[in-house]
Amino acid sequence: MKISIVGTGWVGSTAAYTIATQGLAEEVVLIDVASNIAAAHSIDIAEAAAVCRRDIVIRAGIYEDMAGSDIVIVTASAPVQRPASPTSAPAQPSRRLGLGRNIVLISKIGRAVDELCPRSIVITTSNPVEALSYTSYLVSRDRDRKRFIGYTINDTTRFRVWISQMLGTAPSQVDIFALGEHGDSQVPIFSKLLVQGKPAKLTEAMIQELRTKPLEYLKNWSSLKSGRSSGWLSGAGLATLVKAIRDDARETFPCSAILDGEYGYSGFSIGVPAAIGRDGIYRIFEWKIDADERKRLAESAAVLKEAAQAVDAAYAEGFKEAELGISPAS
Predict the structure, then answer these.
(1) What is the pTM of this model?
(2) Which positions ≥6 away from 114 have C-beta within 8 Å?
(3) What is the CA radius of gyration of the chain?
(4) Domains (range + CATH), the chain
């Protein structure tokens, strides 16, 4: 299996490291505008793979080196301006910040993928992940929606950890999915909670506390001022997706998928439970969830539909920066 990773920041480099040291591919190509960084990572990760007795080719490259890739992982994002006044800036900027510039960037990467490896599975981690995964889908010639996976495993993993801490059990004993937006309107599906493989119910006080956790978590993370994202979690999560694809496992994961009637929605990407296998999204599951969760999912869908409409408008204008109301220097 050949995997290309576009963007070698925290997420891209940790994904490459985890994939290589677990021996999940025969070749990994690292592509970044900072070619020296990609080259440094390729040397270091190749040696890490050797320590683990993994015979794998790790190399830095350019877009043309994606040719023949089975999987393309897109972690790249365009630099954006943060709010000028620190007093008016939110504690954690929205993942939708800089949508216009990133639509342009991802459209360029998507066209390269479509030209060089048009049957590859494309996993997008760049934020806002739903709109940008939809962008990659939109520029593809075949528009085979099963090939386009938006990475959202981190939200679900955090809820597993928080619930395990609340109940005094191990995270491995907790199963729950967070659906909808990878962002402020995410929807934890408490009605499907399993603990030690059995249905479990939380008190209303527990549920209300858990609903505040994502914002609290991001505020606490931002306060660390570490200058990094949750790369190790993302790297591990991406590796689990790669393994499921490689093994045609058809294992169920939360991911952002382009819907075509599921849950009553079409024409945009949103987090849903999906079986992942060799061809990408093998099946999207339409779970019966409770009334409050349906309402919250509808609210999240409205946010994501609006973002997809911005992508549609940009596509109609040929993804020109001028039409997006941004400038190269912004």
Answers:
(1) 0.92
(2) 139, 140, 141
(3) 19
(4) 2-150 (3.40.50.720), 153-313 (3.90.110.10)
d(CA 34, CA 25): 24
For residue range 14-59, what is the model confidence (pLDDT) as tens digits? Answer: 999 999 999 999 999 999 999 999 999 999 999 999 999 999 999 9
What does the pLDDT average to over 243-269?
97
The amino acid present at 238, given as its one-letter code, is L
CA distances 249 to 84, 179, 214, 283, 313, Å, are: 47, 21, 30, 12, 37
Q: What is the CB neighbour count within 10 angstroms for residue 111?
A: 16
Q: Amino acid identity of 166?
A: M
CA dihedral 24, 231, 148, 280 (to 10 degrees): 30
Q: If pLDDT is split at 50, 70 and 90, which confidence band does 98 have?
A: low
If we measure between CA atoms, which residue out of 113, 120, 110, 24 comes closest to residue 71? 120
The residue type of 318 is G
Contacts of 283-290 with C-beta under 8 Å, sequence gap 24+, read 283/250, 284/257, 284/259, 285/252, 286/262, 287/189, 287/192, 289/189, 289/191, 289/192, 290/191
Which amino acid makes up residue 301?
A
Greatest pairwise CA separation for the chain in angstroms? 54
Which residues is 271 bridged to in the sheet?
180, 256
Q: Which pLDDT belongs to residue 244?
A: 98
Q: Would you state the structure tokens that stand for residue 35, as one six-digit string? A: 């070619």
| Coil, helix or strand at residue 28 | strand
Evaluate whether 133 touches 148 at the Cβ level (below 8 Å): yes
